[in-house]
Amino acid sequence: MEILQKEFELKSYKRGFHLITDEVIQNLDEISKFEVGVLNLFIKHTSASLTINENCDSSVRSDMENFVNDIVSNKNYFTHTYEGEDDMPSHIKSSVFGSSITIPITKGQLNLGTWQGIYLGEHRDFGGNRKLLATITGKKYNL
Fold first, then answer.
1. N or C, fewer C-beta in 10 Å, the chain?
2. β-pairing verdict for 116-122 and 130-140
3. Residue 1: what pLDDT?
4. Element (H, E) at 130
5. Is 100:41 a contact under the CB 8 Å cutoff?
């Protein structure tokens, strides 16, 4: 059993939900060395999140953003506004979606469903670059 841990940075995204599967794979070429295993991705921020959802139709991502903004918008009763009006709503959205996801690895590839992709939920108007910590646990190919 092998364990690999690697931190990398995503490019900056505007507020919304963004498909980042390809960016994750580009930063983790080590996945191809694992015959079987799991990838755990953890985002090191409290105002952004990770989730898995539809990877084909971009309207799903905009519908997700519209829905969460309808549920969690800037409320006049929020007192935590150190970094602006979007500060507390971004923390709530991050907690709702979560800070980590786990994906199986099979034959050197992420074993996602046909229509599944990795989303970054950027909940700040100006969040900047986001750091991800990847931990792969599994069995490497015998070379």
1. C
2. unpaired
3. 94
4. strand 130-140
5. yes
